[in-house]
Every structure is written in C-alpha cells, then in structure tokens.
Amino acid sequence: MKRLRLCSLLFLVSVTGVVAQDTMLSKEEAVVKALENNFGIQVAKNEIEIAENNKSVLNSGYLPSLVGNAGANYQRDDSTFEFPGQFLRDPSSGETLLDDDGNPVPRPETNLYKAEAQRYNAGLTANYTLFDGLGRFYNFKRLKEQYQLTSLQARETIENTMIQMFSVYFEIARLTENKNVQQEALEISKQRITRSEYAFEYGQNTKLDILNAQVDVTNDSINLLNTRQQLANAKRDLNVVLSQDLNETFEVDTLVTFIPKIKLDDYVAQATLNNVAILQTERNLAINAYDIKVNTAGYLPNLDLTGSYGWNLNQNAPSAFFPGVNVNNDRSFGLGARLTWNLFDGGGTTVRVKNAKIAYANQEILQEQVALQVNRDIQNALAIYENRLNIYAIQEQNVLTNQNNFERSKEQFQLGRITSIEFRQAQINLLNAQTNKNLAKYDAKLAELQLLQLTGQLLNVEF
What is the 3-state composition of the chain as percent helix, strand, coil, each rounded to the nearest 5? Predict the structure, then answer.
C-alpha cells in the first residue's frame, strides 16, 4: 500500500514536470511589456499628457477671447384699435363731418390681422488682456514647471514598477533554479531506492534502508511540488505587473551580471544630480517661487482691450398710425480699453503673498530633509549591496565545498562505508547550499537595482 502511494506521488511529479517548452521572456522584453502595458504606467503617461495640455499656450491666458452671439424673434398680432371721442374730418377742409341728424361722425375702429414682426441680431465681442501685473507670465512658467514635476512623478512610478517587476522576475528565476536543484535531488533519491532494493535482495542491507529511501523520495517530491506551485503563482504575479493574460506561460533568464564597481561609484557620485526625489523637490521649489510672483501681481493694475461688432434688423408690423412695414437695419463697431487697479482688497493679496513665502520656506526645509534622507538611503543601499555580494561569493564557495563533500559521500555510500542517513545529510547540505546561493544571487541583484534607483540610473542601464 505504501509502495502504491509512493508510485502515485512519483507519477504526479513526473506528469507535472512534462510540459510544453515555454517561450523565453528576457529581461529586456519584460521591461518593454511593462512600459507598454502596466496600468500604473499608463495612468502616469496620461497624467503627463494632461500636464502637457495645461502648459500649452492655449491655457496661458495670452490669447484673446472672441464671443459670438446671434438671435432671432418672430411675432404675429391680431389687433383692434378704437378711437373714442375722435371724429372723422373732411380731408380738404379739416372740418368735422356730420351725419344726417347733424351729429359728428365718430372715427371707426381699425382692425389689423396677422400683423408680423421680425427681429434679427448678431454680434462679435473680442477681449484681450494687455497687462495683468505679470500674473499670467509667471503662471505660464509655473505650468511648465508643473509639467516637469509631473514627468518626474511619472518617472518615479516607472522606476517603482521596474523594481516591482524585477522582484517578481528574479523570484521566478530563483524558484526555477530551485526547482532544477530539487529535481536533481529527487532523481538521486529515486536511484537510492533502486540501489537499496537490489542490495536488500542480495542481503547487503535491511528493509529499513529501503524505507528510509522511500521517505526521502516522498519529502523530495513534496518539496518539488510546492516549488512548482510557488513558481506558477510567481508567474501569475508577473503577468499582473505586465498586464497580460494570467495564464501566459514563459521561462525567464537566470543569468545575472553585476555592474562594475568603478561605474557604480560614478553613479553614486552623481546621485544628487539624478535622484528623482531630489529633482522633485527642486521643481516644487521653483513652483513655490512662481506662486509668490503670481500673487504679487495682485498689487499691479490690469489693462484690458475690447472690440465689438453688431448687426440688428427689425421689421415691425403695421400699426394704426404707421400702416406700412417699418424696417430698421443697424450695424455698429466699437473699440475700448479699461484700466482697473485694485488699490485695496481688504488685505487678501498681502495674506496670499505672505502664505506663498512661508510655503516656499517650508519647501526649502523639505528639500534639505529629502537630500539628507536620500544620502542616507544611498549609503545604506551601497552597504547592503556590497554585503550581499560578499554573501553571494561565500555561498558560491559553499556550494563547491558541499558539492565535493557530496561526491565523496556518494562514493563512500556506494562502497558501503557510510550509512544512508549520512549520505542523505550530505545531500541535504548540498541542496541547502545551492538554494542559499540562488537566494543570495538574486538578493544581490535586487540590492543593485535599488541602488541604481536611488542614484537615478535605473532607467539608463541595460538589464
């Protein structure tokens, strides 16, 4: 029964290991896919586009405004006009006409039916601010600085995404190498079962050696299954970062190269010129400086120019006194200038200027704080990177030592000079050394990438 379970587990491990050859996803391809597809980067690019629109001349206030208007009215009336107390007169003599009884003839009422009137008008009004105390001039420059700040914020998003992407990418690489190491360990354990069974048949060992080998195979199989599951999960994590199908399968490049120390020292020396956090504080400081000048413009007068053109057409309906249609067609032109100077606004401008100066002072303090923190982070990152490189070198040597120890233990085990337990311990030591070396290698590479991010060179190097 135990042998049946063991065979089933081995079959499951072997089946899960038989997969189609996946395509290779290089580091360069992963970077390109992240830049093109990552949702956070797409949002950052849209923010840059908004900032670019805001800094255009169309949003500067330098262009005039032109407003057009037009209207039309139609009116139709049915009217009756009465003339109480008025009498008809002889057109020639002007005397009041009398009826047969000698009474004055009253003036009859007048009826107007379907009396129509139309009114049409159209006009253009142009306004241009010739001078506004230089407020729009400094605001235009402020918008350009805001664009630069938004670009730096997008760069920060891209750098953080690259770090996130490589963290997952190297985790996949580490698990891939661990999987290969564990597969090799499983094959060795399987060979132990076969050897123990032959030795048992010839009376060279006991059943206990077979059971120990089967236990080791079971443990190695479970470890391999868990690693494969972790590897599948990590690949899905990378697919999320790359914004692609979650079930996309691929292999990753496990080759890691490190930047020469002389070049890395040069990057560290120029970190204050390229670090994105420091550059953002500089842009914020420039924006605050323009805020002061924009608010100071409230002390100066404004000069506006206006121009207008208008057209009106009125077609009035006949009336009792004007029986014909009355047409009035007018055209008008106008030019004007207006000077306004807010001599006192209750102190609002003064308060805004003072607050802008305080904000500028705060930004100067923040700039010093960020510079100090970045310098600390760079020194810490450099120390961590060098430490992890040393650990990686030690782990590489440790693998060689354990590899030699395992090979000798294997020879001694085959000669029957050491027990299976001692051989298994040598195998476990080699397995741990190999997985620790893999961990140290990718930890050192991630430390290098984080150092490159702090020095502002993450997007300027080849991966």
Answer: 65, 15, 20
